[in-house]
Description:
The structure holds two protein chains of two kinds.
Chain A: E1 6-8, H1 13-23, E2 27-30, H2 36-41, E3 49-52, E4 62-65, E5 68-71, H3 77-82, H4 91-98, H5 103-106, H6 111-117, H7 125-130, E6 134-139, E7 142-147, E8 152-154, E9 157-158, E10 165-172, E11 177-184, E12 195-203, E13 210-218, E14 225-226, H8 228-234, H9 241-252, H10 266-285
Chain B: E1 4-10, E2 13-19, H1 25-32, E3 51-54, E4 57-60, E5 73-75, H2 88-95, H3 105-118, H4 124-130, H5 142-161
Parallel strand pairs in B: 1-5
Antiparallel strand pairs in B: 1-2, 3-4, 3-5
Helix pairs in contact in B: 2-5
Amino acid sequence: MFHDFDYVKPGSVDEVLTLLAELGERCRLLAGGTVLLVDLRDGHLSPEVLLDIGDLPALQFIRADGGMVRIGPATTLTEVAESPLLPKEVSFLAKAAASVGGPQIRNRATIGGNLAYASPGADMAPPLLALGATLRLTSKRGEREVPADEFFAGPRRTVCGSDEIVTEISFPYRASGRGAFIKLGLRNAMAISLASVGVWIERDPSNGVVEEVRIALGALAPTPIRAKAAEELLRGQRASARLIEQAAEVAREYVRPRPSSIRSSGEYRKIVTGVLIRRALEKCLDTGDLIA
Amino acid sequence: MISVSVELDVNGRHVTVEVKPSERLIDVLRNHLGLTGTKEGCGKGDCGACTVLLDGIAVNSCLLLAVQADGRKITTVEGLGTPDELHPLQEAFLRHGAVQCGYCTPGMLLSAKALLDRNPMPTPEQVAIAISGNLCRCTGYRQIIDAVMDAAHVIAANDKRQ
């Protein structure tokens, strides 16, 4: 079925880094394999060696303490979707994981793989951008921290070097925060996003003023992006239905789909983005206590 | 390319196979071990016809290399029941007309088994999610969901009796 390659299962992260430094572009990392094996089948790739990192305990974890959540890149989407260790404030991240593919895919696919494959519609990206997440990239040369919204360089391209791997995804969270993730696909499962939004809002509990807000868009541009001008409208303000509507309008301007999109037209995506943003903001802001 | 030795527990039986690193689990199951119950519908993880259980969890065997299954437990549809003693899920599928062409059936049964092993009394919605990675071109899914709900009750009744 596939062309021939060697398969190596390193016993430690250090071993992975040594092999990556040695082999560079000649090898590929294998975690869940749910896209890698499809690319192999389609003949898009012909690596000499596959490095299986899917079972390394050092890369599989979910930890929450001191207001920080840390997730290992080889944690499966099922684990992210179902882990009781993920604080309830960030349940929209679990919802995003649960929206990918179907059970069989989620049982193998990993959060790190979803990000590293860098599809413009990667479903784990909008919630992580909204959370202001950071990716730790590690190599024999050392470590560096990259904000999630600087990780993506273009469709299917990241800033990760050929000798680097993601070793941790982390983000802060506050009890005063609320998140929302909405994905629009052509069906309820096994669907690649037409449009997805991730929103995170922290409000001053005493007066409801928006202290922090991040709005992220997926599948709507060459990479997952933040709609920063829309965020500016809301920051420091008390939410109102009108303000939400304005923010949604501004967010729509960030939509830059491919001219020839196979799943839906750019025009439709622009319109629907406004709707998704409005719904996500309403969800985070509890429309019940909005001023008119 | 050199072959490697892979040890598998397939349906309770320990087997050793010589495989190339690039061989898929689905091909080893069907061609090396003659277990043709597992079907290839798309080879891309889109249809679920190749679903098997890997240490009890549902996975697409077309997206696993055989070497990745080394030392693991695999359950195929052949491990569910025997022709003389069908699994309650298989009996329920027959009762409810949930099998037409039969091509999706092995994958459906295993996705259902994975569900019931973790959630013995699911809601219809939970069943629908559990089989959302399995396409059926024939039935419209209604009979399949009914069969899984029915099997859940049969299994619970059996467990009570014991």
